[in-house]
Write a sequence for this structure.
């Protein structure tokens, strides 16, 4: 393969495919290398997110919530149904069809934008050369003016809980259970562990989540994380904090997990175990010894604010670099890098990237938590409003949770927004947009929100920051 490209992207996940499409839109001759194959053994774009991450997990979360709602919630509305059953293979098949539709859509976008999809693996060599190993055939060396590394991440495996068949699985394996386990163990109470635990708990599994740290969701505002733990426990998730797993043993079709907590050594027996302790950058065989790209001690690639590595013309984005491991962060970095290569000035605002946990209710946040601002010593104020005071939430029987703003007391600027509640993933962007435009909390207070909507709780929380809330009783906090 003697072609020389303007841009070669290694990795076809959200960051990689977005970078390739944007580069092609800007008139650059672009190739994207992706080695993933689907469950059917066919080449697949979309990376972890579309194939075994964000999208399939949301499909299962949606299916399992509908089952739970039919079983537990419809009677609230006067709707009576017979015994509700779940056909797990059909649920999994629907999930796979959603994945297939979206990954096929990216392939069509590549074709429409004239992006060359090289099916196989890629390794960066010296002098911006790339070794391309096709899925079948001999390796070839291709070159480009610019190379974008977008290989993503993979689940972290731990020695005390090695994966085994379909009994001890990572997040990928947990998306393909063929039946509902009676007892399910989850190691890790992070985003992935809580979402996957929620899926199978709604379908009837007894779920125990073992988390080594003593605080639940330490990255989340404390007030929100405490509410989340209360609501998830109420739903049946048995979350055990300060529980450090020390070993696992598979006997027949059972998994025995040993762990230590404040009460000493403990054991639990499960039908299946999910290991969800985080993800690591996928740099395996990505860089040759003389590629020259610098990595830190955790194998993240060093980059500047516009994702340039220390090698001129080589960029790295997404889960390979600093910052949250989020698909939307990777996507925007990919677009930014393509723009930079084409000579345009673009910058990702890393202070305004929202995070979401798709439990029910959803947990979402953007910007600084009250804990962070309090620790800084800067004067601040907060506004909190519960969904229990929201007419639309009550009418929908979705009145759990709250919205919270953290505000700079001197400038009145919005520093952060935090929420747990119905559709929190959607209305968290009120806070994101406010921060992006440098809005004050007064700007939000003066806006007219439609009634009745869930978003009125955002308005009420903004008003509450200055003790102006109409629909909740407030006591002024003591200085």
């Amino acid at each position: 393969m003697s072609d020389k490209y303007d841009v070669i992207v290694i990795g076809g996940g959200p960051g990689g495919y977005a970078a390739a499409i944007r580069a092609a839109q800007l008139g650059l001759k672009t190739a994207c290398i992706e080695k993933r194959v689907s469950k059917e053994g066919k080449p697949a774009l979309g990376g972890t997110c579309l194939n075994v991450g964000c999208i399939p997990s949301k499909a299962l979360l949606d299916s399992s919530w509908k089952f739970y709602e039919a079983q537990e919630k419809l009677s609230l509305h006067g709707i009576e149904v017979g015994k509700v059953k779940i056909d797990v293979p059909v649920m999994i098949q629907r999930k796979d069809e959603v994945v297939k539709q979206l990954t096929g859509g990216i392939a069509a976008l590549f074709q429409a934008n004239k992006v060359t999809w090289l099916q196989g693996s890629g390794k960066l060599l010296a002098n911006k050369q790339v070794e391309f190993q096709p899925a079948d055939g001999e390796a070839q060396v291709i070159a480009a003016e610019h190379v974008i590394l977008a290989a993503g991440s993979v689940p972290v495996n731990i020695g005390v809980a090695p994966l085994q068949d379909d009994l001890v699985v990572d997040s990928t394996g947990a998306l393909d259970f063929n039946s509902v386990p009676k007892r399910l163990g989850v190691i890790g109470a992070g985003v992935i562990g809580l979402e996957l635990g929620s899926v199978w708990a709604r379908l009837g599994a007894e779920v125990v989540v073992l988390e080594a740290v003593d605080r639940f969701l330490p990255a989340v505002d404390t007030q929100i994380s405490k509410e989340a733990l209360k609501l998830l426990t109420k739903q049946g998730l048995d979350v055990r904090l300060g529980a450090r797993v020390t070993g696992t043993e598979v006997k027949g079709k059972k998994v025995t997990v040993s762990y230590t907590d404040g009460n000493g050594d403990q054991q639990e027996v499960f039908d299946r175990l999910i290991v969800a302790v985080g993800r690591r950058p996928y740099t395996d065989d990505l860089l040759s010894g003389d590629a020259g790209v610098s990595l830190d001690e955790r194998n993240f690639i060093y980059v500047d604010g516009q994702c340039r590595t220390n090698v001129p013309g080589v960029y790295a984005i997404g889960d390979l670099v600093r910052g949250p491991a989020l698909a939307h962060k990777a996507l925007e970095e990919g677009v930014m890098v393509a723009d930079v290569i084409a000579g345009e000035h673009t910058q990702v605002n890393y202070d305004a990237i929202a995070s979401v946990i798709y439990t029910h209710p959803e947990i979402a946040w953007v910007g600084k938590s009250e804990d962070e601002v309090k620790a800084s010593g800067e004067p601040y104020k907060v506004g909190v409003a519960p969904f229990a005071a929201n007419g639309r939430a009550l009418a929908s029987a979705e009145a759990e949770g709250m919205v919270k703003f953290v505000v700079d007391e001197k400038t009145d600027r919005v520093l952060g927004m935090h929420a747990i509640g119905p559709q929190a993933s959607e209305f968290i962007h009120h806070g994101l947009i406010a921060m992006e435009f440098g809005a004050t909390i007064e700007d939000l207070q003066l806006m007219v929100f439609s009634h009745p909507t869930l978003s009125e709780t955002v308005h009420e929380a903004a008003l509450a920051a200055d003790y102006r809330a109409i629909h909740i009783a407030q006591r002024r906090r003591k200085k």
